[in-house]
UniProtKB/TrEMBL annotation, chain A:
GO terms for cellular component: plasma membrane. Belongs to the CPA3 antiporters (TC 2.A.63) subunit E family. It comes from the Bacteria. Keywords: Cell membrane, Membrane, Transmembrane, Transmembrane helix. This is Multicomponent Na+:H+ antiporter subunit E. The chain crosses the membrane at residues 6-39, 51-70, 104-122. It is a multi-pass membrane protein. PANTHER family: NA(+)/H(+) ANTIPORTER SUBUNIT E1, NA(+)_H(+) ANTIPORTER SUBUNIT E1. Its main location: membrane. It comes from Paenimyroides ummariense. GO terms for molecular function: monoatomic cation transmembrane transporter activity. It is found in: Cell membrane.
Automatic annotation (TrEMBL), chain B:
Signal peptide: none annotated. The lineage of its organism: Bacteria, Pseudomonadati, Bacteroidota, Flavobacteriia, Flavobacteriales. Keywords: Membrane, Transmembrane, Transmembrane helix. GO terms for molecular function: sodium:proton antiporter activity. The keyword Lipid metabolism does not apply. Pfam families: PhaG_MnhG_YufB. The chain crosses the membrane at residues 6-25, 37-56, 68-88. This is Multicomponent Na+:H+ antiporter subunit G. It comes from the Bacteria.
């Protein structure tokens, strides 16, 4: 995993040094090329290919995250601009699958930046999270979308 | 083309921040105000930074903008979490139409069980 990543960075720098153009497009191009070369090499010798599944997942997650951030903002914008309130706030107890401190921190960050939600507290045994939700139409539905849409994908990347 | 993109992005960023400040004024209770401002500020500053990167199209400006966005995404949720936790612990009330408060129920249960054990002791 880490070895593949470092090799990929090394290949990127080799590409940048050989072409001699110090800009972002060239870095990105070198990185993707190194990624595919390493993928082919590792596939042929049947080595550990975990890294090559993780990187696309990370990019997919970043896109999903920015989509959610935009959606959250438009939802809140609609509520701010129109005169009456159409929100149903409440504090929900959510059971986490995240175990370590780092995983919990990342999950809390993601929750704070996605649709109308703020983390208020953690339980003492670090099993539950109390989330303030602004648009709480259905509690179970909210919990299942949160765990399927964000938490599962985040943990796939981190573990 | 590039100019139009810069105009759209900087206008969008300004509008997001404007709406967040309206939200602070309009929202009924502390927690919804908080959740309005965290997200809108992050996205608004992000849009303005991207516009700045496109306008200058310079290596050093780009690296600075990326660093700013990274630290903003890392720090603003943590700050929001701490503010909301302190607000809850010091007894800021939820909006009157709130549907449920599962944290309050759990805290009451906890304090009840603590009192019981103190009595037994």
């Amino acid at each position: 995993m880490l070895q593949n990543f470092l090799l990929n960075i090394l290949l990127t720098f080799v590409w940048v040094a050989l072409t001699g153009q110090l800009d972002y497009a060239n870095f990105l191009f070198g990185y993707t090329m190194g990624f595919f070369i390493l993928w082919m090499v590792n596939r042929s010798i049947r080595a550990n290919t975990e890294y090559f599944y993780r990187v696309p997942k990370i990019f997919a997650f970043i896109f999903l995250f920015f989509y959610d951030l935009l959606k959250a903002n438009f939802e809140v914008m609609k509520d701010v601009v129109t005169p009456n309130y159409n929100m149903k706030p409440g504090i929900v107890k959510y059971e986490m699958d995240a175990k370590t401190d780092f995983e919990i921190t990342m999950l809390a960050n993601m929750i704070a930046l996605t649709p109308g939600t703020v983390v208020i507290d953690l339980s003492k045994d670090k099993k539950f999270m109390y989330i303030h939700v602004m648009y709480l139409t259905n509690k179970e539905e909210f919990k299942s979308t949160l765990s399927n849409r964000i938490e599962r994908k985040l943990l796939e990347i981190l573990r | 083309m590039n100019n139009i993109l810069i105009m759209i992005l900087s206008t969008l960023g300004a509008i997001f921040i404007l709406i967040a400040s309206f939200g602070v004024f309009k929202m009924p209770d502390f927690y919804s105000r908080l959740s309005v401002t965290i997200k809108a500020a992050t996205l608004g500053i992000g849009c303005i930074l991207v516009a700045a990167v496109l306008y200058f199209s310079d290596f050093s400006v780009t690296t600075k903008a990326i660093a700013i966005m990274f630290f903003l995404l890392i720090t603003s949720p943590v700050a929001g979490f701490l503010i909301s936790k302190v607000a809850y612990m010091t007894g800021t009330k939820l909006w009157k139409d709130s549907l449920m408060d599962e944290l309050k129920d759990d805290l009451e249960k906890e304090s009840n069980s603590q009192q019981k054990t103190e009595k037994e002791n």
